[in-house]
Write the structure tokens for this entry.
Amino acid sequence: MMDSLPEKLQQRAQRNAQKRNEKKALIADSALQALQELGFANTSLRDIAARADLSLGMLHYYFEDKAELIAYCVLAYKADFLAYLKSALDGSEGREAVIQRLAEALAASIFNDGPTHRLWYDIRNQALFDPSFRDTVNDIEQGLIEVLAQAWVQAGHDVGAFSPLLYSAMDGAFRYLMQHHAMSPATGQQDIAADLARVLERIL
């Protein structure tokens, strides 16, 4: 009986940790909805707590402050975005196929997840002034650079010739087209994909 007690305690701890993580994920979903509508500067913890149907004190139980919550939200979303881009590249061989697949995936994301991308750029700007966001932003950008490096290799280039500065060109085009679509949504998804493909042809 005594020998099995540590194992039972360990299982209980694992269940509690899983429940906590599930609750944090639910809170993050509610936070993202508020942040997408109001932006970083205009969203308070009270707004988020109200969306999540929690008291402010209970919200602080899961997240120490607004910065920790927002970093958690953005990191979780960007992890899904990176997995989505890597999946789009899987199986594509040759420069033309890589460019087409990546351009189409990026364009679809502008249409499907534009509000969350706007939040990402908002937080990235905040990181210039608030050091609490810098590790999260650096981790996400490193992941995006690695995706472009993967595309570079699949397009037939030597990995040693890849420069992270190429990411800035892709990011600039993506941000511009995402912002343009938010302000003037008449442009179709295929047109945006074509614009992205033209940029990627210069990069890859």
About this structure: The chain has two domains: 1-63, 69-203. The mean pLDDT is 87. The first helix runs from residue 5 to 38. Residues 95 and 155 are 4 Å apart (CA to CA).
